[in-house]
Specification:
The chain is α+β, with helices and mostly antiparallel strands and 274 residues long. It folds into 2 domains: 9-177 and 220-270, CNF1/YfiH-like putative cysteine hydrolases, CATH 3.60.140; 183-217, no CATH class. Helix content is 25%, strand content 27%. The protein has a 7-stranded mixed beta sheet with strand order 1-2-3-16-8-4-6. A 6-stranded mixed beta sheet has the order 5-7-10-9-11-15. The structure holds zinc ion. Zinc ion (ZN) is lined by residues 178, 180-181, 243, 245-246.
């Protein structure tokens, strides 16, 4: 299988678990742990999304293995149930461990020992980390989430709850569908055109494919622009640059697998002080 390492991420295979990590976040390895899984033989579909007992057990096993390898306590994961909302929840209580938070797509915390988990199969998953305030966030943003600017709302939540400064926040963009494969019909194109009139080059970011009457949208770039506009420094927006569809042999993709699709997971946690 292809090594997906590039200037921003390293691709690791360890004890039967495959994942990428952001070089920039590894600089803070004494404070945080993180990974985005690679491989379509494993599936991280969350428990409440499935009635399949075998799949549930398998998901649990997969998370256990991943957590063991990267040094996270499996029982201290908190999940969002991801309904394409713009809601971000602050996690402060250990009673949330192993819970799935309902009706939210973003999670943030400053509590050591907590790990935040999201899943995707094409959607964008953002890691946020403020090394000054030691605050993390993990946010799911499909095309609906991007339209509702959930990445920006995550930063606002970090500011509001923990007084984070945008100039300190690092934002990492995990593998997702990219402009090369994110093709939409007129209805979605119109929604984007309408919402992002504040972006100067929006007509170039939404590219018409003649003669198909389809459009390709660079949702990753839109997020970069809106994050940059509220003060996240360009050098602190770190993109994996990896397209899930282009790498369909290695990463789950809804557009490729369709019904019954599998999901990858992104986890980020604050380490306990020793
Ligand atoms: Zn692609």
């Amino acid at each position: 299988m292809k090594d997906l390492s590039n200037e921003n991420v390293i691709h690791i295979k360890k004890d039967g678990v495959e994942y990428i990590q952001f070089k920039k976040l590894l600089d803070y390895n004494d404070k945080i742990l993180h990974a985005y899984t690679i491989g379509i033989e494993k599936n991280y579909r969350r428990l409440t999304q499935s009635n399949d007992e075998i799949q549930k057990k398998q998901t649990q096993e997969n998370y256990k293995k991943l957590c063991d390898v990267i040094g996270i306590d499996y029982k201290k994961l908190v999940y969002s149930n991801q309904l394409h909302t713009d809601k971000v929840e602050d996690i402060k209580d250990i009673k949330d461990f192993a819970q799935e938070k309902k009706g939210v797509d973003g999670l943030c915390t400053n509590k050591e020992g907590i790990t935040l988990a999201t899943v995707n199969a094409d959607c964008i998953l953002f890691f946020f980390y403020d090394p000054v305030k030691n605050v993390i966030a993990n946010t799911h943003s499909g095309w609906k989430g991007t339209l509702q600017r959930i990445s920006l709302k995550t930063v606002q939540k970090m500011q509001e709850k923990y007084g984070c400064n945008t100039k300190d926040i690092i934002c990492c963009i995990n593998p997702s569908i990219r402009k090369c494969h994110f093709e939409v019909e007129k209805d979605v194109k119109d929604l984007y055109e309408n919402e992002f009139q504040d972006i100067e080059d929006i007509n170039e970011i939404i590219e018409e494919k003649i003669p198909n009457k389809k459009w390709n949208i660079d949702t990753v770039l839109i997020n970069k622009i809106i994050l940059n506009k509220i003060g996240i420094l360009e050098e602190n927006i770190i993109d994996s640059g990896i397209c899930t569809v282009c790498n369909k042999e290695q990463i789950h993709s809804y557009r490729v697998q369709k019904e019954g699709y599998g999901v990858e997971t992104a986890v980020i946690g604050l380490k306990n002080k020793n």
